[in-house]
Design goal:
The chain is built from eleven helices and nine strands. With 266 residues, the chain is an alpha/beta fold. Strand 5 (106-111), helix 5 and strand 6 (131-139) form a beta-alpha-beta unit. The termini are far apart. The relative contact order is 0.11. Bound molecules: S-adenosylmethionine.
Amino acid sequence: MSRPIDGHLARKRFGQNFLVDQNIIRKIVAAIAVKAGEPIVEIGPGLGALTAPLITAAGHLDVVEIDRDLIARLKEKYSPEQITIHEGDALKFDFGVLASKAAGGLKVVGNLPYNISTPLLFHLADYAAGVKEMTFMLQREVVDRMVSAPDEEAYGRLGVMLQYRFHMAKLFDVPPGAFHPAPKVTSAIVRLVPKAPEELDCSDDLVLSKVVTAAFGQRRKTLRNTLKGLLDDAGFVALGIDPGARGETLSLADFVRIANYCVERA
Ligand code: SAM
């Protein structure tokens, strides 16, 4: 078991790895670049490594935290003018309530708990319309999947579905030594900026999700097999897509064309 930090024992079940490297903290806060009065929410403030400088810059911060001990500390340290604490699970949190109050869009940030990062990214994608930008620390391997391109090893459902909604860029790596306790893997900072409504050219997101999930469901199988029931021979011909190819060769634009074709034919 690792030694306590500030009298708190890190809880594995909440994915707690606290940032302790001041240079890295400064670099992340600079990347977030929040202005005074700008609406911003931090997921998992923990012991406040990012929270403190973000409050200094923004004046006020909303936070979503699940750990009651950490919530008690935040309440002691900050006044209600500085922080609004939403106690509970970020996976169930309605970010739309904050987004609807945020003229110009909400900034969402966090050193995300690794054990829930993928479902959390999908949850947050639902609120993209009300978000200005999101800046997250994640396992580098997850960031690589998010920004991957066709034919790359990391390319899959996570990348395609998030690239449909967001422009994304990996900003920089963060080594394990920047945290206590140190995780086993390298982390990375990623920025997600929601695409404008006119860039979202799929007529039904649920159909897109269905097509992408099917295409990557069995990686070794050809599209003829994985898309059975969704796209017939005539569809492959009409779209000019090779039924003998595999899902990982298709671009985001190809997936959108397939989904739109399915919607038209339904
Ligand atoms: N922001 C702090 C830092 O950078 O040092 C802590 C980051 S730590 C990796 C993740 C934080 O998310 C912890 O404070 C943890 O308690 C919190 N957390 C874990 N699961 C959560 C959930 N489902 N909803 C909200 N917060 C969660």
